[in-house]
Design a protein that fits this description.
The two termini are 27 Å apart. The protein has five helices and five strands, in the order E-H-E-H-E-H-E-H-E-H. It is 35% helix and 20% strand. It has helices at 13-19, 38-52, 71-79, 94-99, 110-113, and strands spanning 2-5, 24-27, 60-64, 83-88, 102-105.
Length: 117
């Protein structure tokens, strides 16, 4: 799944994600143009999947985020025996990096993420 806020009409990210097998979950921004509901939806889906679809020792979670708000989810799943990986830029929350099974800094992959003209 790929979560985010409603993009501009000409944004191709969501179409690319869909063609890559991701299920985009998109929310409108609030009146102050701030992203709402995204973080909570991510944790809700991860927890639901951990009970309904995933098997300890077989499935892993990889979260691409850097916010310490995810630490309780990471801690809960790791406590249940799941592998929980986090990928983000170097400035990700120290607490989140330390709570993950493995942290991968995305800084070294920026060249792969850049739009090629």
């Amino acid at each position: 799944m790929l979560f985010g806020s409603r993009p501009p009409a000409n944004d191709s990210l969501w179409a690319i994600a869909r063609s890559g097998g991701f299920e985009p979950i998109v929310y409108d921004r609030n009146a102050a143009n701030r992203e709402k509901k995204v973080d909570n939806s991510i944790t809700t889906e991860i927890m639901a999947d951990s009970y309904e679809r995933m098997k300890v020792g077989e499935d892993e979670v990889t979260l691409v985020a850097g916010d310490a708000d995810y630490v309780p989810t990471v801690t809960q799943l790791r406590g249940r025996g799941f592998t929980f990986n986090v990928m983000f830029w170097d400035h990700a929350s120290r607490e989140l990096r330390e709570s993950a099974s493995k942290f991968v800094a995305m800084n070294n992959f920026l060249g792969y993420l850049a739009v090629r003209g």
